[in-house]
Amino acid sequence: MKYEAVIGLEVHTELQTKTKIFCSCRTSFGADPNTNVCPVCLGLPGVLPVLNKKVLEYAVRAGLALNCEISRFSKFDRKNYYYPDLPKNFQTSQFDLPICEHGYLDVEVEGEKRRIRITRAHMEEDAGKLVHHGTSITDSDYSLVDYNRTGTPLLEIVSEPDMRSAKEAVAYMEKMRAILQYVGISDCRMEEGSLRCDANVSVRPVGQKELGTKTEIKNINSFKGVERAIEYEAMRQAELLEDGGKVVQETRTWDEKEGVTKSMRTKEEANDYRYFPEPDLVPFTVSDEYIENIRKSLPELPDARKERYMKEFGLSSEDAVFMTNDKATADYFEAAVDAGADPKACVNWLMGEFASQLSTDGIEIAKAPVSAENLAALLKLISKGTISGKIAKKVFATMWKEGGNPEEIVKAQGLVQISDTAELSKLVDEVVGKNPKAVEDFKAGKKKAVGALVGQIMKATKGKANPRVINELLNKKLQSL
């Protein structure tokens, strides 16, 4: 029997406010354990929370960008459960009256467009962080708790079970991250936990409308992890059903090292959390004027930027998606084009040599040592024929390691491309004269013989000869023999 996966995601993003959602403690990442805390976020008796206005603004910004309806009347609730990283033994969240509802996100996977519906987006506080002393939560001898993250404002964005593959889930996550970055509400650094997701996965026989029993995979913090975890879990469930077994509704964790999901606990239902209205926070209203003012302040979003890049710069849909799925990349690309870089050449470099260096150094594009203006200057040297593409890679490596202007590096290292036909004609004559076998191969119809001769000339000029001019001169010479 053939099965299909049914996937819904719960995306949690930390909002980049300076202070926490209900107190004035700082939200800065990387502080010493348990230093950004106070009686309010530690849940000590007698304290009263106060809603951070910026959190509400950011939630509305996100909701509008995700095509949601914004609730005019909303409130907070207590979600009751016990866990060591939750000092109050309840989480202040939103239950039946969330701030945002009924949105959607359009994604494209392998040329096919899909609309993923968004059920809701609600504000809540983050829990603390458990530091496990072992390879994972399932095999640690003990865990320590850092409460610095407790009370950091979160937006939880819940999708409908509209995704049918791990690739669709990743595309949804990538698009979500881009939108949240564009509207300026989160840095979405998955490695720091400011963007993470829980994946609800079930399988069912192809053609069946009824949903299968789902499992929830908690706190996946990388796109690669999302894809691998969902693929593994869907396969696990399908094999279990094929063997006559039964899927149990439960919460599972993703073990990145072993590449498997592992059972943590049986899955709770909403009534297990005993939700009730938060008595220390009054319900609040949001006016039409407030919403419209935020709507007017929204920037150009990824889809609009993608369409503009295709129309204005002639990029393919795939290239435009790559350029706009990360705001910092899009900003860098646009700055380079404004500085005179050819758009398509710039895309090729950003997806190739540039991306490779970022990956090798493990840094984001915002921290790249080569500025957009200097990359544009390098690309202009190639287009003018001053240097070849091969030499450009050497110059780029120097720029990356030592900094500097590409023109100055080219002059200092004597890397200017040789395009003088008289000079190159002499080299062509010499190389042809020394390689009678290659000449015979060419006459016999073996066109690849030209490549070997080009290689010798490039070697003699240390890569500085203009390949286009060499090929023209060689073909002319060989055809005259």
Summarize the structure.
Keywords: ATP-binding, Ligase, Nucleotide-binding, Protein biosynthesis, Transferase. It holds the Pfam family GatB_Yqey. The protein has 481 residues and is an alpha+beta fold.
Structural class given helices, strands, pairing? Answer: alpha+beta
- Percentage of residues in DSSP E strands: 15-25%
Uncertain segments are none
The tally of strands reads 16
Helix content: 25-40%
The helix tally amounts to 16
Q: Widest sheet: strand order?
A: 2-6-7-10-1-11-12-13-14
Distance between the termini: 68 Å
Overall mean pLDDT stands at 89
What is Rg?
Answer: 29 Å
Number of domains: 3
What overall form do the CA principal axes indicate? elongated
Largest sheet: 9 strands, mixed
Secondary structure blueprint with pairings:
Layout: E1 3-14, H1 53-65, E2 69-70, E3 73-74, E4 77-80, E5 90-93, E6 100-109, E7 112-125, E8 129-133, E9 142-146, E10 153-159, H2 166-182, E11 195-205, E12 215-220, H3 223-242, E13 250-255, E14 260-266, E15 276-277, E16 284-285, H4 288-297, H5 302-313, H6 317-324, H7 327-338, H8 343-351, H9 353-361, H10 372-383, H11 389-402, H12 406-412, H13 421-434, H14 436-443, H15 449-460, H16 467-480
Parallel strand pairs: 12-13
Antiparallel strand pairs: 1-10, 1-11, 2-6, 3-16, 4-5, 4-15, 6-7, 7-10, 8-9, 11-12, 13-14
Helix pairs in contact: 2-3, 5-6, 7-8, 7-10, 8-9, 10-11, 13-15, 13-16, 14-15, 15-16
